[in-house]
């Protein structure tokens, strides 16, 4: 809930609904004739095409509102935001006198752009019609299915990756960490295609690549190919279920870390295992980092479902070790029988990042590309329906960059911050999370990469 310091709430909601409708129609590629009934004539809606400009009538969070020491709402106000190049040059009172070209934010809330920290841009059915996954029995079964599918999708993977980038931008994300298959079928072709797709968007999207042995590092005998991938410019060394897939936990992890040490590269490993050997794998990784301090702060465990099997003092001890060795966790905020201890990890200071994982591929068909949706699921799973909890849930989608700190002090945006941000059809971040509010416009380093606004 947001309390405005200026303007009329009814007028704001009415204008917001109208502008949201226009942005949705135009963003979906529908004709301008279909948007003619909106408040702004279609010819006045455009994407910002200059580097120094004003965003007028921007809603910013100012403070929490308390009643008897309970946070009940978020106070917001209207501002004019000056953008110059990649940064926010100034935050001015609404009505700021300026000759700069200006666009109307129409009272929408300005929030930090989201980041998709676990996605597979290199392999997807997205952009080529509906196709449901086939039934599966195990990860190995899925790998066998993938071996049949890869020859079909790898040749067009650059185009598909670019379509996914566009989807992420429309949901407010301009940064991603993408895993990329390194396997005997794709070889290094998928990596080359993904690198080209990212290069094509170097001005409007940032992505780091994890060289990912999807069919097993040992099982598919791709250590040499993984090393070639690192030479080609992959940013992270990946791994996969060292016991269930590779059948040799210590040897698999040792091989992964050996590549990372040789290339002075960070690690991001898929660890789905929930059996006791999943916990053993985490403990072995912690031991490896303790013995190799140059790896400290450079290990991400994706999924880490084994943490959901721990409780009490055993869980506390594990979280303490993860914090000490500066591990991070990338999660899809899973809904299932294993409830991850994500709030405990965040409270202890272990970085927890959200990711889409898959969007319309042979593994899962459920991805939307929205990190706001991940924050929403997080709030629902961990019982956070109140204003404060909803506002904090946004952090899982933004690398903990939030408009207000936990004391309610305004901390974002500030002058000279990167203008990587999104306008959302909501009155505050809590509402944006609760309603998975539509993204009206997305900006990457000051450049508008999604949406259309009214020039004024």
Description:
With 456 residues, the protein is α/β, with parallel strands linked by helices. 32% of the residues lie in helices and 24% in strands. The chain contains 13 helices and 19 strands. It has helices spanning 9-27, 139-153, 157-170, 189-200, 223-232, 249-262, 276-291, 312-324, 342-348, 371-381, 387-393, 395-398, 429-434; strands at residues 2-4, 45-46, 52-67, 70-84, 87-93, 102-104, 109-112, 114-119, 173-181, 206-212, 236-240, 267-271, 299-303, 328-331, 352-354, 421-424, 439-444, 447-450, 453-455. The model is unreliable at 6-40 (pLDDT under 50).
Overview in brief:
With 456 residues, the chain is an alpha/beta fold. 32% of the residues lie in helices and 24% in strands.
Features:
single chain; 456 residues; alpha/beta; Urease, subunit C, domain 1; TIM Barrel; 19 strands; globular
Q: What is the CATH topology classification name of the largest domain?
A: TIM Barrel
Helix-strand category: alpha/beta
Helix content: 25-40%
Number of domains: 2
CATH architecture name of the largest domain: Alpha-Beta Barrel
Shape: globular
Layout of SSEs?
Layout: E1 2-4, H1 9-27, E2 45-46, E3 52-67, E4 70-84, E5 87-93, E6 102-104, E7 109-112, E8 114-119, H2 139-153, H3 157-170, E9 173-181, H4 189-200, E10 206-212, H5 223-232, E11 236-240, H6 249-262, E12 267-271, H7 276-291, E13 299-303, H8 312-324, E14 328-331, H9 342-348, E15 352-354, H10 371-381, H11 387-393, H12 395-398, E16 421-424, H13 429-434, E17 439-444, E18 447-450, E19 453-455
Parallel strand pairs: 1-4, 3-6, 8-9, 9-10, 10-11, 11-12, 12-13, 13-14, 14-15
Antiparallel strand pairs: 2-19, 3-4, 4-5, 6-19, 7-16, 16-17, 17-18
Helix pairs in contact: 3-4, 6-7
């Amino acid at each position: 809930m947001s309390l405005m310091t200026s303007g009329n709430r009814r007028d704001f909601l009415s204008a917001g609904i109208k502008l949201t409708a226009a942005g949705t129609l135009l963003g979906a590629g529908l004709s301008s004739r279909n948007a003619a009934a909106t408040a702004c004539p279609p010819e006045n809606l455009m994407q910002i095409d200059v580097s120094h400009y004003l965003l007028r009538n921007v809603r910013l969070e100012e403070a929490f509102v308390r009643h008897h020491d309970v946070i009940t709402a978020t106070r917001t106000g209207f501002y004019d935001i000056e953008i110059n190049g990649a940064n926010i040059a100034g935050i001015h009172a609404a009505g700021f006198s300026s000759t700069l070209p200006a666009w109307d934010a129409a009272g929408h809330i300005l929030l930090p752009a989201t980041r998709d920290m676990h996605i597979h841009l290199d392999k997807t059915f997205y952009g080529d019609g509906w196709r449901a996954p086939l039934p599966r029995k195990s990860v190995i079964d899925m790998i066998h299915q993938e071996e049949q599918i890869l020859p079909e999708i790898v040749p067009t993977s650059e185009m598909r990756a670019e379509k996914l980038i566009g989807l992420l931008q429309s949901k407010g994300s301009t940064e991603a960490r993408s895993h990329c298959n390194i396997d005997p079928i794709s070889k290094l072709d998928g990596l080359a295609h993904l690198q080209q797709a990212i290069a094509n968007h170097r001005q409007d999207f940032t992505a780091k690549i994890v060289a990912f042995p999807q069919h097993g590092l040992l099982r598919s005998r791709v250590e040499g190919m993984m090393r070639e991938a690192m030479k080609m410019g992959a940013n992270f060394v990946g791994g996969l279920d060292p016991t269930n897939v590779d059948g040799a936990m210590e040897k698999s992890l040792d091989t992964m870390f050996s590549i990372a040490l040789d290339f002075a590269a960070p690690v991001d490993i898929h660890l789905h295992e929930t059996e006791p050997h999943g916990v053993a794998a985490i403990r072995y990784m912690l031991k490896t980092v303790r013995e190799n301090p140059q790896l400290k702060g450079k290990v991400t465990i994706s999924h880490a479902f084994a943490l959901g099997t721990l409780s009490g003092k055993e869980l506390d001890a594990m979280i303490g070790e993860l914090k000490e060795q500066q591990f991070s966790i990338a999660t899809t905020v899973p809904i299932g029988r294993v409830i991850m201890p994500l709030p405990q990890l965040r409270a202890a200071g272990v970085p927890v990042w959200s990711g889409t994982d898959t969007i319309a591929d042979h593994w899962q068909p459920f991805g939307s590309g929205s990190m706001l949706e991940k924050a929403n699921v997080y709030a629902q799973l961990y019982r956070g329906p109140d204003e404060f909890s909803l506002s904090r849930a946004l952090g899982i989608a933004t690398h903990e960059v939030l408009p207000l700190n936990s004391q309610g002090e305004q901390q974002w945006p500030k002058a000279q911050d990167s203008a990587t941000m999104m306008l959302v059809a909501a009155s505050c971040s809590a509402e944006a999370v609760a309603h998975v509010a539509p993204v009206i416009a997305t900006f990457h380093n000051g450049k508008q990469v999604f949406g259309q606004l009214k020039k004024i």
